[in-house]
Amino acid sequence: MAEGTGSLYRRFVGPLLAQDEGADAEQLSQLTLTLLGQASLRRGWPLVAGSLAGLGAELQRHDLRLEQTLFGCRFPNPVGLAAGFDKSAVAAGIWHLFGFGFAELGTVTWHAQPGNPRPRLFRLAAERAALNRMGFNNGGAVAARRTLERQGLPPAGQRPAVLGINFGKSKITPLELAADDYASSLELLAPLADYAVINVSSPNTPGLRELQDETQLRRLVERLRRLPACPPLLVKIAPDLEDDAIDTIARLAYEEGLAGVVAVNTSLNRLGLESRRLVQTGRTLAEEAGGLSGAPLRARALEVIRRLRATAGPSLPLIGVGGIDSPEVAWERIVAGASLVQLYTGWIYRGPELVPAILEGLLGQLDQHGFRSIGEAVGSGAPWR
User: Fold this and answer.
1) 3-state DSSP call for residue 2?
2) Of the residues 202, 267, 293, 339, which is catalytic?
């Protein structure tokens, strides 16, 4: 019998991820994306199509109880790929075959930019975490549109998985011109996006987080919502906001008609790992720039979802991201109020088998609690059984 994808991943990739040093984290990620990008471009070729069909048969889980319609998009299941992995949208045509119900592409900026100097992505293997200071490295909005068009995707709303696009500010654009910078990217890519996310929370672009200020964010949202055919618009926030700032964003989202909030981005807080030393640089996390992701972020990410739900009420869709690496953690985030969850760091460490494991775990919990659909579980507070 052929060895499964999860087993192959554990055997060959697992050892590379079990230590901080060794294979460079960014190079490994880039190699993976190059292969996936070629597969997405050639997914109609017989040999490629056969391999991808086998992948889908192994990793996808289809069940009507997992479906939801949120801000006009039909999500076949609540587990998505977080922004930051497929920055240039090269594999947009095949993410559903890994079991994802949706994928968030980007972050895309109007201007192409190389990002910050390397090294800029670091594994923290023992903690199942990562530190990144990538700096929105991407080819720009024009290149992203060209890449998406080359893949021959079905029209928005007719895809096997929902595709969102995450937008950021170009580093060279002054803060006072940020709204025009975002608007240029969104206007160009709007026809290809099922939904759009305003990223104002990355810690790796100087001044970007200032756009989370109520006045600045309101001005930005109003500018973008005036665009013709603007897709459903969400905002992605940082985990490092004070509670009153979280409450303000929840109210703003309601008042401005935002489709939802993505919570959370990576953290500047070292979350008890201040003295943890990076092998590659010899410096501690307290001395290093960049955002922390993965398991250490789990507790704070959960707190933010609970705070948003308490302030915004049940009608505002929330997407929970940060430290989700098991069915139990995904369920915890959903019953706290997240309609959808996203994976990144946990998916890298656990591999492709994480998505079907989460979906099976969620279905098991629906059975345990007598819920007819995942929507009934959202915000219910039901414990893991």
Assistant:
1) coil
2) 202
Of residues 87, 229, 110, the one with CA closest to residue 180? 110
pLDDT of 21-39, one tens digit each? Answer: 888 999 999 999 999 999 9
Residue among 305, 271, 320 at smallest CA distance from 291: 271
Task: Tell me which of 2.60.120.260, 1.20.1250.20, 3.20.20.70, 3.40.720.10 is the CATH number of domain 5-377.
Answer: 3.20.20.70
Angle at 197 between CA 92 and CA 105, to 5 degrees: 15
CA atoms within a 13 Å half-sphere pointing along the CA-CB vector of 135: 14
First to last CA, the chain: 34
d(CA 94, CA 172): 33
Nearest to 377 by CA among 114, 129, 368, 144: 368
Distances (CA, A) of 97 to 28, 82, 85, 100, 195: 21, 16, 16, 7, 20
Alpha-helix runs per DSSP H in the chain: 5-8, 14-17, 25-41, 46-59, 141-150, 178-189, 214-225, 243-255, 298-312, 327-335, 345-350, 354-369, 374-377
Q: What share of the chain is helix, strand, coil (3-state, %, to 5)?
A: 45, 15, 40
Amino acid, res. 23: A
Active site residue 202: yes
- pLDDT tier at 1, thresholds 50, 70, 90: very low
Distance of alpha carbon 229 from alpha carbon 359, whole angstroms: 33
pTM exceeds 0.85, yes or no: yes
Separation between Cα atoms, residue 154 and residue 370, nearest integer Å: 36
Look at residue 358 and tell me whether its pLDDT is greater than 50.
Answer: yes
Quickly state the pLDDT bin for 3 (edges 50, 70, 90): confident
pLDDT at 2: 58
Instruction: Enter the tokens of residue 171.
Output: 């580093």
Residues 6+ apart with CB under 8 A from 8: none
Name the residue ranges covered by the structural domains of the chain. Answer: 5-377
